[in-house]
Amino acid sequence: MRIGLGYDSHAFKPGVPLVIGGLAIDHPEGLAGHSDGDVLLHAITDALLGAVSAGDIGTFFPPGDPRWKNADSSIFLKTALEEVATAGYRIANIDTVLVLAAPKIVPIAGELRQRVADLLQLRPGDVGIKAKTPEGLNQDGVAVAQAIVLLVPIGTPTDLSKMTATVDAETDIDSVVKSLVAEEPLGTGLKRRMPIYDTEDIT
Ligand code: MG
């Protein structure tokens, strides 16, 4: 397995469209940057590149290059996914933290998670999106994102516990195969007890 960590920050700027996690968000200010300023996708891109020791987002997309002016950051993410696949890995799961004073993320948290999952070709249950306000940091004009990703070799089953299935004389081989390839409803494997996003701590 491989693990990768990503971090990014961008300042809010009036009159700029706000895009976070590939999602256009209705807000009076957006994030300033050479590209579309998508702080979350930049952090995820760096986590992916870091996990396969392939440099960082600036290695592939230098900020001085006019080709990336106002670029859709999903382009950066796609390149990082290609690097991961070339190295022989796929994402097992990813977790992220957004730190920003506004806008509130709760109303769009589900949509945001779905969008990031789509971009990463993951199930929403393999994507964590958490948001915090910058309490005590005096950085309300800035959005910060952190991302951590776990990679496994291509071909590794999604649910490792199912690799322990065994066959004995009494067991029908077909039922074992079916259990190995079965899709479980999201969350059941994690024995989730609390509903997601039901917290005052999310902005
Ligand atoms: Mg950035």
Describe the protein.
With 203 residues, the chain is of the alpha+beta class. Helix content is 25%, strand content 25%. It is built from five helices and seven strands; from the N terminus they run E-E-E-E-H-H-H-E-H-E-E-H. The strands form two sheets. Strands 4-1-7-5-6 form a five-stranded mixed beta sheet. Strands 2-3 form a two-stranded antiparallel ribbon. 30% of the residues are buried. The C terminus is likely disordered. Bound molecules: magnesium ion. Magnesium ion (MG) binds next to strand 1 and helix 1. Magnesium ion binds next to strand 1 and helix 1.
Q: Briefly, what CATH class?
A: Alpha Beta
CATH superfamily: 2-C-methyl-D-erythritol 2,4-cyclodiphosphate synthase
What is the straight-line distance between the termini? Answer: 32 Å
Mean pLDDT: 86
Detail the poorly predicted runs. Answer: 183-188, 198-203
Number of helical stretches of at least 4 residues: 5
Task: Please write the string of helix (H) and strand (E) elements.
Answer: EEEEHHHEHEEH
Radius of gyration: 19 Å
Overall domain count: 1
- Beta content comes to 25-35%
Bound molecules: magnesium ion
Class per helix and strand makeup? alpha+beta
Shape-level CATH architecture: 2-Layer Sandwich
Per the CATH scheme, the topology name is 60s Ribosomal Protein L30, Chain: A
Biggest sheet strand order reads: 4-1-7-5-6
| Strands, total number | 7
Question: What is the molecular shape?
Answer: globular
Helix content, binned percent: 25-40%
Main sheet overview: 5 strands, mixed
